[in-house]
Amino acid sequence: MTKQSEQATPMPFLALLLACAVPGAGHVYLRRPVRGIIIFVTIGAMFWSGMAMGGVLTVDSVHERWWFVAEMLTGVHGLIGWHGQRAVYERLRTVQGDSLDEKMVREGVALVTPADTAARAYAGVAGLLNLMCIFDALMLSVMGVCGEPAAKTDTPNKKPKAPSP
Question: Which among 63, 72, 116, 145 would be 20 to 30 A from 30, CA to CA?
Answer without folding.
Answer: 72
